[in-house]
C-alpha cells in the first residue's frame, strides 16, 4: 500500500502548494474508519481508496478530489457520517463523497428499464460536480485491475457494466487511455480466449517482422529532424479489444487488418503540427478518407489532434496523431483538464472545456424524455458517437455524430427548424433526408409552414436530440388526434344508450375511472386504451349492461364529419373489430380500408386525405361481406357439408364461384356476410378443422387487379 508520504509526493510533483497536512489527515481518518475491513483478495480494504487517489494524481487533480478518493467509501461502508466529514474536511469534500456514495448505490447492471432510470440519476449526479464521476471512474478502474479476486458471476456482471457504461463514458469525457484500459480489462473477463488469440498473433507478428514500432518511430523522428521540427514521437500497438472490435466491424481476420499500430507526434506549436503532417505525407502515402483535423474542428470535450492514416511500401497502414503539448494534456485527461494543476496553480490550458457547459450540451436533449428506455437509447447514441463537422450557408460549424442525416442537422440548429424540415441541399444539391452527411459538407435545410415531424423520421434520425424532439412532437400530435377521436367515440356511445356525452358526464366518468382530466379520458378512449363501453358503464352502469341493440350500418363507423358518407373498400373488405383507416374522395365520401391494406401505400404521400376511424363498439348485424378462398376435396356431398357448416355459424352465403376444377379438388370463392372479425376467425377455424377442406384463406384483391386510388 502507498504510504501517506508517497501519496503526498505524487501530488507535489504537479502541485507543490498542496495542503500536505490535510491529505495526511484524510489518509489517517480513512485508514482508521476502514480498520478491520478486508477486500476479497485478503488485503486491507483501505488499499483500495489509496490506489484510487493515486490514479487521480496521474490526472493532476486538485486536493479536494484526492481527499474525496481517500474517503469515498467511508459514508457507505463505515460509521463515518456526512456531518463528520463536512466538519473535518469542509462542505466541498462532503458533497463530493456523498455524490460518489450515491453513484455507488446505483445498480447500473440491473434490467433495462431500471438501468435507464439509474443512468438518468447518474447524469444528474454528474451535472452537480463532474469530479464525482472522475472519482467513480478511477474507483471502477482499480476494481477492474483487481477483479480476479471476485466470484466469476460477479466478474462478468462488473465487466459487462464497465463495457456498456463506464468505458464509453470515459471516452466521451476525453480520457481515451482510461476507456481503452477499461475495455481491455472487461474484454479479459468477457472473452479471455479471444483476447489471448489476439496477443498470440501479436507475438507471432513481432517474431516475423521484428520491432516495427521502434523502426517506424526512428524513421518518423528522422523525417521531422530533416525539416527542423522539434517533436517527441511515441509508438504503440493498439489494445487487444480495439483490434478485436475492428475485426468484428470489418469482418476481417487479424492478418488482413492493417492499422494495428498507432503513433503520436507531440510538437511545440500548432503551426508545427501542420508542418509535421507535411513531413509525414512526403515520406508515406496518405490513405484516402482517413484524415481528420480535430485541431481546426475540436470535439465537444476539448479534444484536438490531427489524425492521419498512412501506408508504407509493404502496404501496412499506421495511424498517426499529431498535437501540441497542451492539446496532449487535454487528450489524456479530457474534461478533467479543467481541474488539472501544474506547478501549484490551476493549469491555464486554453483547450480545456468548462465541465458545466459540456454536461449541459450532453444532457439538454434528454430532459424531455419521459420513457426510460428512450432515454437510455438517446444517451447511448450520444456516448458511442464519433463526429463529423458540417457547415451552415453562413459558414458556422455544426458538430454531428458519424452517420448523421439532414434531419439531425436541422434539429442541431433548432427544434423549430427540425419540425418544419421538408428537404435539404448538400453542397447546393437537393438530397433525400436519409442522406448520410460527411465531413466538410455545406448543408442548407428547406422548411415549410405547416410541416410536422413524420413517424418515418425516427428511422432516419441518429442523434438523441433529434429522436427525442421527434418523439415528443409525435406524442403531442397523437394526443390531439386521439382526444378528437375519443370525443366522437364517447358521443356515439352515449347516444346509443339514449344519453348525451355532456362535460359533466365525462367528468363523472373520468373520476370513476381514476383518470386525471377529461382530455386524458378522451385521449385514452381514442387510443383504444379504454373502450366506449367502459366510459358509458362508469356513468350509467344499468344502461351499459343492457347494450344489446344492434348498431345500424349507417352508424357503424365513428370519426366521420357530420353528413359524410362511407363505403367499405372492396380490396380488403374490412370488418367491425379490425383497425381501419378512411381515405377521402371528392364526390364519393370516405372509403374505409383495413389498416394493413396494401392499397394505402398508393396514397401514403397524401396524409391530408387520411381519416382516423373506429368501428362502433356495439353489436353489428351480419351484413358485411367477406370473400373466402377454399380448396375442397372433389367428393359427393362435400360442398353441401361446407355450406351447412357456414350456416351453423350464423353466416349467410351471398355468392359462390368456382375458379378451378381438378379431378381431385375444387377451388372456389365464397362470399359470406358476417357481423365482425371475431365471427370470421371462428368460421375459418371451423373450416380448417374440416377434413375435406385442404386450404382456407381470406381473399384480398391484389394491387394490380384493381383500379388505382386516384
UniProtKB/TrEMBL annotation:
CDD domains per UniProt: HDc, NT_Rel-Spo_like, TGS_RSH
Domain HD, chain residue ranges per copy: 45-144
GO (cellular component) term, any one: plasma membrane
Domain ACT: 627-701
EC number(s) on file: 2.7.6.5
Superkingdom of source: Bacteria
Catalysed reactions, as listed in the record: GTP + ATP = guanosine 3'-diphosphate 5'-triphosphate + AMP
Broad EC category: transferase
Gene3D superfamilies recorded: 3.10.20.30, 3.30.70.260, Beta Polymerase, domain 2 (3.30.460.10), Hypothetical protein af1432 (1.10.3210.10)
PROSITE patterns, A to Z: ACT, HD, TGS
InterPro entries linked: ACT-like_dom_sf, ACT_dom, Beta-grasp_dom_sf, HD/PDEase_dom, HD_domain, NT_sf, RelA/Spo_fam, RelA/SpoT_AH_RIS
GO molecular function, one term: GTP diphosphokinase activity
Any one biological process term the GO annotation gives: nucleobase-containing small molecule interconversion
Domain TGS: 382-447
Keywords: Hydrolase
Family per similarity comment: Belongs to the relA/spoT family.
Role of this protein: In eubacteria ppGpp (guanosine 3'-diphosphate 5'-diphosphate) is a mediator of the stringent response that coordinates a variety of cellular activities in response to changes in nutritional abundance.
Protein name: GTP pyrophosphokinase rsh
Taxonomic source organism: Phaeobacter piscinae
Amino acid at each position: 500500500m502507498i504510504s501517506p508520504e508517497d501519496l503526498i509526493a505524487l501530488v507535489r510533483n504537479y502541485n507543490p502548494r498542496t495542503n500536505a497536512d490535510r491529505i495526511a489527515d484524510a489518509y489517517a481518518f480513512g485508514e482508521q474508519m476502514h480498520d478491520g475491513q478486508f477486500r476479497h483478495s485478503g488485503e486491507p480494504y483501505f488499499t483500495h481508496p489509496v490506489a484510487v487517489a493515486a490514479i487521480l494524481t496521474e490526472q493532476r487533480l486538485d486536493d479536494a478530489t484526492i481527499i474525496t478518493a481517500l474517503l469515498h467509501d467511508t459514508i457507505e461502508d463505515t460509521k463515518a457520517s456526512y456531518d463528520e466529514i463536512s466538519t473535518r474536511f469542509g462542505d466541498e469534500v462532503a458533497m463530493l463523497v456523498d455524490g460518489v456514495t450515491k453513484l455507488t448505490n446505483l445498480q447500473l447492471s440491473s434490467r433495462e428499464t431500471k438501468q435507464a432510470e439509474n443512468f438518468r440519476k447518474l447524469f444528474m449526479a454528474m451535472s452537480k460536480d463532474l469530479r464525482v464521476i472522475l472519482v467513480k471512474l478511477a474507483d471502477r478502474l482499480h476494481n477492474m485491475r483487481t477483479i480476479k479476486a471476485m466470484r466469476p458471476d460477479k466478474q462478468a456482471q462488473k465487466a459487462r457494466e464497465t463495457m456498456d457504461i463506464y468505458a464509453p463514458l470515459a471516452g466521451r469525457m476525453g480520457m481515451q487511455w482510461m476507456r481503452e484500459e477499461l475495455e481491455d480489462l472487461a474484454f479479459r473477463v468477457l472473452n479471455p480466449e479471444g483476447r489471448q488469440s489476439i496477443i498470440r498473433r501479436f507475438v507471432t507478428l513481432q517474431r516475423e517482422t521484428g520491432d516495427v514500432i521502434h523502426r517506424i518511430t526512428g524513421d518518423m523522428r528522422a523525417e521531422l529532424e530533416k525539416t527542423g521540427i522539434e517533436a517527441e514521437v511515441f509508438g504503440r500497438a493498439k489494445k487487444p479489444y480495439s483490434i478485436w472490435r475492428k475485426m468484428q466491424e470489418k469482418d476481417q481476420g487479424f492478418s488482413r487488418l492493417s492499422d494495428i499500430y498507432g503513433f503520436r507526434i507531440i510538437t511545440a506549436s500548432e503551426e508545427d503540427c501542420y508542418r509535421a503532417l507535411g513531413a509525414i505525407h512526403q515520406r508515406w502515402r496518405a490513405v484516402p478518407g482517413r484524415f481528420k483535423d480535430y485541431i481546426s474542428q475540436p470535439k465537444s470535450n476539448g479534444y484536438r489532434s490531427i489524425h492521419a492514416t498512412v501506408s508504407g511500401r509493404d502496404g501496412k497502414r499506421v495511424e498517426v496523431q499529431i498535437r501540441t503539448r497542451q492539446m496532449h494534456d487535454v487528450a489524456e485527461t479530457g474534461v478533467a483538464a479543467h481541474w488539472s494543476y501544474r506547478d501549484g496553480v490551476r493549469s491555464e490550458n486554453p483547450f480545456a472545456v468548462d465541465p458545466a457547459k459540456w454536461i449541459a450540451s450532453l444532457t439538454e436533449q434528454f430532459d424531455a424524455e419521459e420513457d426510460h428506455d428512450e432515454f437510455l437509447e438517446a444517451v447511448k447514441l450520444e456516448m458511442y458517437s464519433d463526429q463529423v463537422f458540417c457547415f451552415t450557408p453562413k459558414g458556422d460549424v455544426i458538430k454531428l455524430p458519424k452517420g448523421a442525416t439532414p434531419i439531425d442537422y436541422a434539429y442541431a440548429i433548432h427544434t423549430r427548424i427540425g419540425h418544419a424540415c421538408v428537404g435539404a441541399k448538400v453542397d447546393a444539391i437537393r438530397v433525400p433526408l436519409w442522406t448520410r452527411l460527411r465531413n466538410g459538407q455545406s448543408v442548407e435545410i428547406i422548411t415549410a409552414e405547416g410541416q410536422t415531424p413524420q413517424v418515418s423520421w425516427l428511422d432516419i434520425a441518429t442523434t438523441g436530440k433529434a429522436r427525442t424532439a421527434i418523439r415528443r412532437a409525435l406524442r403531442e400530435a397523437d394526443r390531439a388526434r386521439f382526444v378528437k377521436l375519443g370525443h366522437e367515440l364517447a358521443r356515439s356511445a352515449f347516444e346509443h344508450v339514449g344519453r348525451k356525452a355532456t362535460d359533466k358526464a365525462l367528468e363523472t366518468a373520468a373520476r370513476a375511472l381514476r383518470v386525471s382530466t377529461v382530455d386524458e379520458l378522451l385521449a385514452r378512449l381514442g387510443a383504444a386504451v379504454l373502450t366506449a363501453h367502459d366510459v358509458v358503464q362508469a356513468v350509467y352502469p344499468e344502461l351499459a349492461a343492457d347494450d344489446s341493440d344492434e348498431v345500424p350500418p349507417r352508424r357503424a363507423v365513428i370519426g366521420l364529419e357530420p353528413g359524410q358518407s362511407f363505403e367499405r373498400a372492396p380490396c380488403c373488405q374490412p370488418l367491425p373489430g379490425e383497425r381501419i383507416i378512411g381515405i377521402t374522395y371528392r364526390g364519393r365520401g370516405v372509403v374505409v380500408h383495413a389498416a394493413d391494406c396494401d392499397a394505402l401505400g398508393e396514397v401514403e404521400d397524401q396524409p391530408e386525405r387520411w381519416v382516423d376511424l373506429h368501428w362502433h363498439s356495439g353489436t353489428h348485424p351480419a351484413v358485411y361481406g367477406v370473400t373466402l378462398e377454399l380448396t375442397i376435396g372433389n367428393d359427393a356431398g362435400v360442398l353441401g357439408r361446407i355450406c351447412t357448416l357456414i350456416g351453423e355459424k350464423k353466416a349467410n352465403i351471398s355468392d359462390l364461384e368456382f375458379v378451378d376444377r381438378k379431378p381431385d379438388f375444387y377451388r372456389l370463392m365464397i362470399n359470406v356476410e358476417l357481423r365482425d372479425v371475431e365471427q370470421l376467425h371462428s368460421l375459418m377455424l371451423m373450416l380448417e378443422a374440416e377434413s375435406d377442406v385442404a386450404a382456407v384463406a381470406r381473399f384480398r384483391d391484389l394491387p394490380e387487379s384493381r383500379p388505382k386510388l386516384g
